[in-house]
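Sat 14:20. Reprocessing the chain from the morning session after the first attempt stalled halfway. Input below, unchanged.
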Amino acid sequence: MEQLKWVFKTFGNLTPDELYAILQLRNEVFVVEQNCVFQDADNKDQPSHHLMSWEGNKLLAYTRIVPAGISYAEPSIGRVVVLPAARKRHLGKTLMQKSIEMLRNLYGPAGIRIGAQLYLKSFYESLGFQQTSPVYIEDGIQHIEMFLNPGSS
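Finished this time. Tokens:
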């Protein structure tokens, strides 16, 4: 087993192979696994930063860090995804911790707002996020907004 390599890039610095792997992973989980037809290419990738976890040439985990004013008034972490075959490795928590760290390196001790799938509420609460909205339906899936206070990690 190779060591995980974490890569953090702007959209313009992604290679074609990295972008393809990102889109393939997002489609595998958000469209196929979750049986959800939605427009993944939402024009938020271009202004965002992208955090990837690679093992060799295989993308295992990914998030995008969205600047303030695009998804929410605050900066956000979105498209949080772990390859199904890698989920038993508990990459999700490390992925989110690194995403929070990278977001704070970019924007300082900002609050972070996310749109979370409801079934992941306790996972995000374990990272310090708190629910800030009632349940709403997005693309046929129950979601909630959650917020991480500035300075929390």
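The longest helix spans residues 16-33.
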